[in-house]
Specification:
Elements lengths: L1 H55 L6 H26 L4 H18 L1 H16 L7 E3 L4 E7 L3 E5 L5 E5 H5 L4 E2 L5 E10 L5 H13 L11 E7 L4 E10 L3 H18 L18 H7 L1
Antiparallel strand pairs: 1-2, 1-5, 2-3, 3-4, 6-8, 7-8
Length: 289
Amino acid sequence: MDTTAAHLGGEVGTFLAGLAAWAAAAVPHVIGALLLLIVGWWIAGRVYRGLSHLLGRQRHIDPTLCGVITSLARYSILIVVLVAVLGQLGVQTTSILAALGAVGLAIGLALQGTLSNIAAGMMLLWLRPFRVGDYIDNGAVAGTVKSVGLFASELHSWDGIYQFVPNSELWNKRIVNYSRLSTRLVDLAFGVSYEDDLAKGQEVLRELAGSDDRVASDPAPQTFVDELGNSAVVLRLRVWAANSDYWTLRRALTERGKTALEAAGLSIPFPQRDLHIKDAPASLAGKAA
């Protein structure tokens, strides 16, 4: 028993001595890794908040782009800190980076569609064909842009429908931005009878345009005969206005234009056809009689 106890005590002593030697060598590295992690995390947070404050004061930088830049800066610093912490702990970071590269390649091949959305999102954020708050239409989707991310964009349609659109569907198609320019053309057509005075009709439309303060004076309003239709002569009224006034002005001029033309004695005919029967058969003529 005494021999066994002495042998066991010797093994425990050897283990404790080895543990103390390992701790003496490893504890400084562990403490250094913890300090490096804490400092790196603090620096990443400071950089994130500092960039957010700095970019938020720049009016020429899109708010969505600010969020992407600050997030990329923060995570880039955290990745560098993580690699440095592993190196401080004695881990071979070269092999880890090689493994991460292989994993990244495999993920990239498996997620080609996702990567195309990221590439499209970066191009949209860089070239900015539209901004948050713009109303766009690319043929497949239309709505007001609420946010632009690296993977997808959020749009709200005019009838209150939420749309989550992958960026590749926006980048690879023609985009019509209705909000980018400050002014917009209001183009209206009014049909009048062939017997009406066309010069008088154009004068009425010019007076109508001049009476509304929302109509821009430069370029000046235009009125002209645009088409000789089947049932009416089409008079065209074209005016320029602020983009924000487009729809209200268009509706107002349409309603007031009809009223003004009728008050001036002009008529707005509805489609109609005259049927003339030539050389009708005798049986049909007898029935008509």
